[in-house]
Amino acid sequence: MSLTGQAFYYTMIVATLLGIAATMLLWGRVRGVIALRGLQRIAMLLICQLCAIAVTMTWVNDHFGLYASWSDLLGTGGSGHLVMSGPPPQTADFSRAVGGTQSTYFRGPASRLAGRCTSGRRRSTARRHTSTFTSR
């Protein structure tokens, strides 16, 4: 099942709804001493919360494209698939930008994400040694 597919998203929604329904049905049927009943009820609530978080994270991933596949999410595969375009890892060619700052695009060697970095002297002396990073 694809990480970015609608089938996975709807499966997570159904799992969340089933978890809530099971918690409601089993809440009064929990047996054992008071401490054991409390732990069982906490476990049921945690399962509901984890399912809700999974649905939210699946939605975020679908809309913002954070991970393209399961191997991308788990960090396995090593297929060399580039997530974002940009220069080869660990290279940066600086160029002069507006206001005397320097700007470059670079790629992280582990994450393979690319971004633009701007640094240099600014007009304000309070922010003289700062740099900014913006993802492309």
From TrEMBL:
Protein name as it appears in the record: Uncharacterized protein
UniProt entry keywords in alphabetical sequence: Membrane, Transmembrane, Transmembrane helix
Biological source species: Flexivirga alba
Transmembrane segments: 6-30, 42-60
UniProt lineage: Bacteria, Bacillati, Actinomycetota, Actinomycetes, Micrococcales
Biased composition (Basic residues): 119-130
Domain of life: Bacteria
Location of region: Disordered: 114-136
